[in-house]
Amino acid sequence: MATFTRIGLILALLMVLAACRHSEPQSSAQLVVWAWERPEDLRFLPKDVSVAVQAGFIDLAGDGFVARGRRFPLRVSAPPRIALVHVQIDPRRPLDWTPALRRRVAAAALHYAQVIPVRQVQIDFEVPRSQRRVLLDLLTDMRAGLPKGITLSMTALASWCQEGWLSQAPVDEIVPMLFRMDRGDPTIRARIEARKDLADPRCRQALAISVDTPIARLPPRRKVYLFDPHSWTRADFDMARGQVEQR
Fold it and tell me: In sequence order, what DSSP letters do the residues of 109-150 get, joined into one string?
């Protein structure tokens, strides 16, 4: 059975817009900062850096799920451009992915993706090989349900970009995460640092890095998402931006 938080609570916690804009040097790279589910004050960001806010969370278990909105405040100088919905499967209860459950999950994801007006929606859903159909079903339903003009993005384990199945994903953007790559980490990291790009061409539009897992050589001409395992600070952002601009 799904549990929804009220829209008013989500909006109350989502953001407090600063009254004035700051004038800092702008980055030459296209950068997006992820605002995950924790208190974040991003008013120090340069004006040309976008924010992707985690606006919804869906936990699938058995024949049901729990869905809720963001619980922590986000302070920004401009509204976020991307709404992210995080989805996960509880491994303790085998998923019964029925057509009815699929419809309900898609409705929940669409709900949280549109709590605030954005230009892009992103699905963050790391699935094991046996559950890839669930991810593809959700992306298909999101594509069908989003208003015209809203682009659809997905995060991806970097190893997925070496396997060929992402051609089935009906998205505008795939964001391979070049951190927390588990068993594929040494091979993929070596490939990237040797300037040998990811195999799937669709994985060459964007990438994601973490401030605590630097990569010596990043591919050029790519939109870069920045992740911090803790609440962002100006120092963390400057360090991550410095790595990107050294490409």
Answer: HHHHHTSS--SEEEEE----GGGHHHHHHHHHHHHHHSPTT-
- Contact between 209 and 198 (Cβ < 8 Å): no
pLDDT at res. 96: 97
Which tens digit of pLDDT belongs to each residue from 148-171?
Answer: 999 999 999 999 999 999 999 999
91-104 exposure pattern, b = at least 16 Cβ within 10 A, e = fewer: eeeebebeeebeeb
On whether the CB atoms of residues 43 and 236 are closer than 8 A, the answer is no
Buried b (16+ CB within 10 A) or exposed e, 70-79: beeebbbbbe
Instruction: Report how far apart, in Å, the C-alpha atoms of 246 and of each of 3, 49, 127 are.
Output: 45, 17, 33
What SS3 class is residue 41?
A: strand
Q: Is 234 helix (H, G, I), strand (E, B) or coil?
A: helix
Which pTM was predicted? Answer: 0.88
Q: For the beta carbon of residue 122, count every other beta carbon within 10 angstroms.
A: 27
Burial label, 216 (beta-carbon count in 10 A; 0-12, 13-18, 19+): exposed
Compute the distance between CA of residue 183 and CA of residue 7 in angstroms, rounded to an integer: 40
CATH T-level assignment (fold) for domain 7-233: TIM Barrel (3.20.20)
Q: Where do the domains of the chain lie?
A: 7-233
Report the pLDDT value the prediction gives residue 142, as an integer from 0 to 100. 98
